[in-house]
Amino acid sequence: MELQAALEQRYSCRCFTDQAPTTEQLTALVEAGRLAPTACNNQPQRVYVVTGAENLDKLDNCTKCRYGAQAAFVIGFDTIEAAVHDPERMGGTTFSFGDQDAISVLVHMALKATDLGLATCWLGAINDNQLHLEFGIPETVAIRAVLVCGHPDPEKGGPAGMHTKRRPAEETITWL
Question: Is residue 108 within 8 Å of residue 93, measured between CB atoms?
Fold first, then answer.
């Protein structure tokens, strides 16, 4: 798939079939995330691949928004490894790039999923503390999102309505 087609076809899927992505597909997604750029190439991202009924049940304890997806990725960053800007360069404040690094990984994975004919939904309605408990994620890892993934159910919905409509460019973009 061409990149432009993936950009145009990607949407937030909220209706998945009960068919799980293959191990090969999941591996391709995590590889796409691994290739994402990170500040100073520190690569502090941490991706936890959630599959199987038992683990998906654990995930359901952390969010009510799985939408039946048969795989998910818990995405965060190691707070110790994330690049930090020197306070002198940032006007006296310290700034970690971990958030940007983690989201860069997520976007790469979501676009690759579209390329593979899968669908995703980026979840923000998650209980970070519960994710740490359910999956034994180290406290040094700041969780930033869950990306649910699977085969879209064409009979229950698809890329329609508010998920693909875009406001005119002149409403959201300003050239300076």
Answer: no
Alpha-carbon torsion 89, 104, 30, 60, what sign?
positive
The pLDDT assigned to 160 comes to 53
Among candidate residues 131, 166, 161, the one with its CA nearest the CA of residue 146: 131
- How does strand 45-51 pair with strand 84-85? unpaired
List strands edge to edge, sheet with 141-150: 45-51, 71-78, 141-150, 119-123
Q: DSSP characters for the chain?
A: --HHHHHHH--B---B-SPPPPHHHHHHHHHHHHTS--GGG---EEEEEEESHHHHHHHHTT-S--TT-SEEEEEEEETTTS-EE-TTTTTT--EE-HHHHHHHHHHHHHHHHHHTT-EEEEE----HHHHHHHHT--TTEEEEEEEEEE-B-TTT--S-GGGT----HHHH----
Measured CA to CA in angstroms, residue 54 lies from 60, 71, 73, 92, 134 at distances of: 10, 12, 15, 47, 11
Tell me the per-residue pLDDT of 42-51, one tens digit each, with 9 for 90 and over. 999 999 999 9
Task: With a cut of 50, list the residues of the chain below it in pLDDT.
Answer: 161-162
